[in-house]
Structure of FtsX-like permease family protein:
Amino acid sequence: MFSYLTFKIALQYIFRSKTLKFAKFVAFISVAGIALGVAALIVDTAIMQGLHSNLKSRILSITPHIIADNFKSSDKLLEFDDVLAVSPFIQEQALLQTPGGLSLVYVQGIDENNLKLKNGIFKSDLDLVRIPKKGSYQLNAMASVYLDNNIRLNTQARLISTINSRYTPLGITPSQRIFTLKYYFPSTNTNNSIATVIGNIDDVRRLFRLRENSLKLRIYTKDAFKIDKVKQYLDKNNVSYNLWSDYQGDFFKAIALEKVTMTIMLALIIIVAAFNILSALSMMVTSRLNEIAILKTIGLSDTKIKGIFILMGLIVGVLGTFIGVIIGIPLTYAVVSYMNSMGTMSAVSASIDMTNLIYVAIGSILMSLIFTLYPASRAAKADPVLNLNRG
């Protein structure tokens, strides 16, 4: 189907033909449309991937990847490639009473002293926020806690919990303690409006009146989206657990859905441009039926005739895709730079993944190929006797 001769004729029809100027114009529009669609798709996927990675690192650094209930074989978990560390852990809800009012928060108790790390892993690799010292009754809270309650650092606040409440002559008495809001870390609130405060595990355990043998186990993993092996191991040992998706799963599903939606919308630009290829090739086939008949008469087979027009569509598709990639990469960084210079939102980052580039390029070229099949088949089926008589 494809040979030097068919390639030479395809180039002749596209670039050196003095007739069918309108068809050549439509082909040019096709190249421009494909280039625009590919460039827009690269910008979209790069920025969405950068946003996804940024949110993933920020939100999932605070949200526990896996919380196992009462699991003692922590050393066995460290043998999994995906597990970085394990540590005793507490996470419960409580009311935070400040001079600014009441708010519901997640209270996390983290134990740095009993943090077990895989060989070659350091605490800094886990991106842990600052954890107050034992007995200090201090909290490291999200910045949103200070903003929403209009309070400052070193403000005393009361944590109130109904967990392990006690019965008294006055009725059920919740457990409560005074803590000092000493530190803060960037807010990561998403669709889950409940903020997080972090304290020393011993101080938090006393607040909730928990025994040391009732603590849970926090499992840190390399990638929160790749924890299937750890889940299977916990299921096999009948261990109850909670995943990060129980708290933030809906948010990341929304991000993924938005990414897919934007990709489909921008892919439509490429499809419209590919339709232009079909139109241009159809016009060329109609106007060159006499030439096609001559080529068949001198010995070109139907397969080679089909190959000529398929190559014409592929050349347009490859050219448009190449231009789109060349434009899309610098355009991505230009858009990110412009958005960051506006200063009205959080820093925007882009992640240009070579795999995504390859998928976009292959998808664009395949779409161009699909829309060449009909006019190419029509050219191959042309009757040389009828068309020579017309000539």
Summary: The chain has a mean pLDDT of 82. The CA atoms of residues 169 and 366 lie 77 Å apart.
